[in-house]
Structures are given as structure tokens and as C-alpha cells.
Design goal:
disordered N terminus; three-stranded antiparallel beta sheet; 216 residues; six-stranded antiparallel beta sheet
Length: 216
């Protein structure tokens, strides 16, 4: 009978080799996602982007009347009248009939302009041809000046001919850029020439004005 004997040293080498293989296999499984692994996470929450706003305040004060304040956010079409004048006859004026204080209440710098939205004549004297009794708005002369220390004329001419006109910041040297919080007051002056025709008699001219603002 043959007897096979193993060397203790050889057995130890075999066992060590098996342990090494198992360790390597386990490491490979962890590295390849086969077993749980350590993790780390960072997170950025609540990032925001906030816009500036273009907004204005309008305070209209007819001469001898009460001031009305409005804003583009709360009452853009409910601003008060600039002037209410009666008993006009040929040769009337020039008379300051009202003011408007404009303020840039937005967080953004802006440019402003003023323009005539509409002008219409009503109540013409029936003695004259009603189809031609519509001249009062064009015959009335309007001048708009600003509130500079040395006032600047924004517009002068026929009331009905006024177009969009840029307005400057008060005492800025004519700068058209209004920073947030900037304000200026504009005075409206009316006159009616002595040459006013009969078609202006017993008439009412009603004018609407628009103040525009654009981000600069």
C-alpha cells in the first residue's frame, strides 16, 4: 500500500492562494456594483432668478383742484385730469392749467415720454354747421414745461398736434435716463388766440394723455 504524504508548507501555500483569490473576487464585486459601496452626495436647492420692474407713479393736479395719484400697477387708466378750464374766450391765456408729477417707482432705470392719446370736440353750437364745429382742439395752444431749475419746454403748439416726446430727469442736464426714484413735474399751459373762429364757440375739447416708460 502506497502512502501519499503532503508537505505542511505546500498546504499552507494552497490555503493562502485560495484566500487571495476570494479577496480579489470580493473587491471586484464591490468595485463593479455587486455589493454595497460608500457614497457621498451634495445638493444645491432654491436657486432663483429675479427680474427688475419698470413702474411709475403719476400725480395730476388741475390748477385750483385736487391731486389724484395713480400707478401703472393699481390704476393705469384711472389717473386724474390734468386740467379743467371753463369760460374760455378768444385771447384766453396763456394760463398754467395743471401739473403732472411723474416718478420712476420701479427698480430699473428707464426712459419716459408723454403723448396725446386723443383729442375730441363735442357740444358744438348748432347755429354753425355741426360738421365743421370741431376746431377747438386744434385752435387751442398747449405748452408743456418741465420742473427744471431753468424750465425746459417739452412741447409747444396746437393741442391736437402733440406727438410722443421724450422727457428728461429733473436737473440732470437733459439726461433721458431716469434712475429708480427719480421724479419731475410737468406744467401744462393753455391759450386760445384772438383769431379763434366761430366754430370754436360753445365747444368742449376733451384730451387724454399717455405717459410711457421703457426700461433703459
Amino acid at each position: 500500500m502506497s502512502i501519499v504524504s503532503r508537505s505542511p508548507r505546500r498546504d499552507r501555500k494552497v490555503r493562502a492562494g485560495m484566500v487571495l483569490v476570494l479577496v480579489l473576487a470580493g473587491t471586484a464585486l464591490i468595485g463593479w456594483g455587486g455589493l454595497a459601496a460608500w457614497q457621498a452626495v451634495t445638493q444645491n436647492n432654491g436657486s432663483t432668478a429675479i427680474t427688475d420692474g419698470v413702474h411709475m407713479q403719476n400725480v395730476a393736479t388741475p390748477t385750483g383742484g385736487t391731486s389724484t395719484t395713480c400707478t401703472d400697477q393699481t390704476s393705469p387708466s384711472g389717473c386724474g385730469v390734468i386740467f379743467t378750464v371753463s369760460n374760455i374766450t378768444p385771447g384766453y391765456g396763456p394760463s398754467a392749467v395743471g401739473t403732472v408729477a411723474i416718478t420712476n417707482t420701479g427698480s430699473e432705470q428707464a426712459t419716459f415720454d408723454v403723448s396725446l392719446k386723443s383729442a375730441a370736440v363735442t357740444g358744438a353750437d348748432s347755429f354753425w354747421n355741426a360738421s365743421t364745429d370741431t376746431t377747438l382742439c386744434s385752435d387751442l395752444q398747449l405748452t408743456v414745461t418741465d420742473g427744471e431749475t431753468s424750465p425746459v419746454t417739452v412741447y409747444t403748439g396746437s393741442l391736437s398736434a402733440m406727438s410722443a416726446t421724450g422727457i428728461a430727469v429733473k436737473d440732470s442736464g437733459g439726461s433721458a435716463i431716469w434712475p429708480s426714484g427719480a421724479t419731475n413735474t410737468f406744467t401744462f399751459t393753455l391759450s386760445l388766440p384772438t383769431s379763434s373762429p366761430n366754430t370754436d364757440e360753445d365747444s368742449t375739447c376733451t384730451a387724454d394723455y399717455t405717459w410711457g416708460e421703457s426700461g433703459a
